[in-house]
Amino acid sequence: MKFYGLDGQQWTNVIAAWSGWLMDGYVSIAYLLMASYLASVFFPSSFTGSLLAVVLGLAVGSIARSIGSLVFGNFLGDRIGRRNMLMVTVVGFSVFSFAIGFLPTYESVGYVALALLYVLLFIIGLFAGAEYGGGTALYSETVPAERRGVIGAFVQSGFGTGFFIAAGVAAIIGSYYSTAQIISFAWRIMFYTTLVPGVVALVSRLGANETPVFREMVEKKEIVRTPIFRMIREEPLPVIFAIFITTGLLYINSGTFSFYPILMGPGINNIPLKDSGLILVIANLVSLIGVWLGGIISTKIPGRRLAMMAFSVIFIVSLYPLIYYGVSTNVNVLYIVFSIQAFLEAMIFSTLPSFLAEKFSKRYRSTSVGFTYNAGAIVGGFAPTFILLSRASIGLLNGWFLNLAVANILLIAGLALSAETWSRAKAGAKDIIHD
Predict the structure, then answer these.
(1) Which member of 50, 76, 240, 387 lies 3.0 to 4.6 Å from 43 by CB, making a disulfide possible if both were Cys?
(2) DSSP type of residue 327
(3) Residue 405 CB: number of other CB atoms within 10 A?
(4) Residues 197, 57: Cα–Cα separation, whole Å
(5) Is 257 in a helix, a strand, or coil?
(6) Residues forming a β-bridge with 32
(7) How far is the C-alpha of 382 from the C-alpha of 250, rounded, in Å?
(8) How far apart, in whole angstroms, are the C-alpha atoms of residue 313 and residue 319?
(9) How far is CA 352 from the centre of its chain?
(10) Are 407 and 312 in contact (CB under 8 A)?
(11) Is residue 83 within 8 Å of residue 52, measured between CB atoms?
């Protein structure tokens, strides 16, 4: 029996990919939801730059992601298989995220605690970096081209689902514990829970099969010895343009979803964790609707690239008014503003996995998709840091807007320079995912 044209095994592969996005969303946001509290855990109270230093940990993980995407993609994903690589990465991803909950504090070991935090964030980033490329290859090489836009949007929604659940957990923690208790011990609970999505992802991947495309590559002896060098030699410009796109989009993502909990946390707007968690729960629930709707709409627009371009233009037009109200301390206003912005941004993301998967050859797809996505995260991961820095010179409103506006322009430029992949006009032609 099939659902949306896919049989049970195909859906198992799709869920296996989706679960990696869920894990990523949960772990990434768990750290950011606790960032304002971790500033008091890993630094003395007299240190004025503690929040900035903790937020910088996001950038540490982002740098590691690009390295991990190359290492795991090059030596595992494009050589031993997409599914096999993802079985390895999810274990490391979840175990080291869980380990953050056991770290000592500044009070007990001084700045050694911060060093250990950065080390763990770097290791987590290495494993996380392989997830996007491997998961994208796993689902895209399993799903027919005409279904790939909607299914890709569903897979992308895993990140928002993870964020949604993590925000709910944070809201519960904020309901039971005071700020002093969260700083004292309850922050650890957030990281202990990261083991749960890791187990879910691991179990979902036990039933996954290697993709037909990769099995065919093995049978025909088409496995490339060094996928990364083949990628650079054959498609240098598509790689560069794809990095423009991912840098702009991930900077926007870090400057919104990742910045919301920092903006609302202690030291800036001082909104209680219970309230900020609920705001993020609603915003991410709305974002799921946005990414699913974006995937559906993209099937009516003649092209993945064109769909992303249209959604990007809508986002930049709405940017200033939403940021203007987004700096408010009125909880009811933030429910509305963050939800609208999350919805519009999620629509841009809806076709990104399919666009990247179709952009590169099957011989180095895991490596190239993972690398171009995570290379964008290198700069993107610094968005909260740069917004906080610009806040001191030109104010929060202007600094936040300027950062996101520049990123959006880079995103649109990358899309304008890139070639279309699959489109409605090409429907019925040979599926480029097999080339």
Answers:
(1) 50
(2) T
(3) 15
(4) 22
(5) coil
(6) none
(7) 10
(8) 10
(9) 11
(10) no
(11) no
Q: What percent of the chain has pLDDT over 70?
A: 94
Instruction: Give residue 430's pLDDT.
Output: 52
* Neighbouring C-beta atoms of residue 221, cutoff 10 Å: 6
Q: Let me know if 107 is exposed, middle or buried by CB neighbors in 10 A (0-12, 13-18, 19+).
A: exposed
- The predicted pLDDT at position 74 comes to 59
Average pLDDT of span 67-72: 79
Residue 237's identity, in one-letter code, is L
Least confident of 82-91, 211-220, 417-426: 417-426
Per-residue tokens: 224: 């490339």
Sheet strands (E) in 32-186: none
Mean pLDDT in residue range 254-266: 90
Strand partners, 6: 3
Radius of gyration of the chain (CA): 21
Between CA 75 and CA 80 the distance in angstroms is: 8
Assigned token pair, 148: 């790939």
- What is the torsion angle, in degrees rounded to the nearest 10, for the CA atoms of residue 367, residue 373, residue 375 and residue 378? -140
**406: Cβ–Cβ under 8 A, 6 or more apart, which residues?**
none
What's the pLDDT tens digit per position in 116-173?
A: 999 999 999 888 888 887 788 888 888 887 788 888 888 888 888 988 899 899 989 9
Q: How far is it, in rounded angstroms, from Cα 240 to Cα 232?
A: 10
Tokens (6 digits) for 253? 């993502």
CA gap 24, 193 in Å, rounded: 13
Structure token digits, residue 390 = 């610009």
Q: What is the b/e burial string over 260-278, where b = at least 16 CB atoms within 10 angstroms of the residue's CB? A: bbbbbbbebbebbbbbbbb
Structural domains of the chain in order of their starting residue, each with its CATH number? 8-434 (1.20.1250.20)
**Sole residue written with tokens 């494009």:** 78
Task: Tell me the pLDDT band of 426, cut-offs 50, 70 and 90.
Answer: low
Tokens of 365: 């797809």
Tally of residues, the chain? 435
Whole-model pTM? 0.85
Nearest Cα neighbor of 187 from 197, 196, 195, 179 is 179
Residue 363 contacts residue 222 (beta carbons within 8 Å): yes
- What is the token pair recorded at 349? 């993301």
Q: How far apart are the first and last CA of the chain?
A: 29
**Which residue is it, tokens 């990104």?**
352
Query: What's the CA angle centered on 330, arms 324 and 334, to 5 degrees?
Result: 60
Does position 249 have pLDDT exceeding 80, yes or no? yes
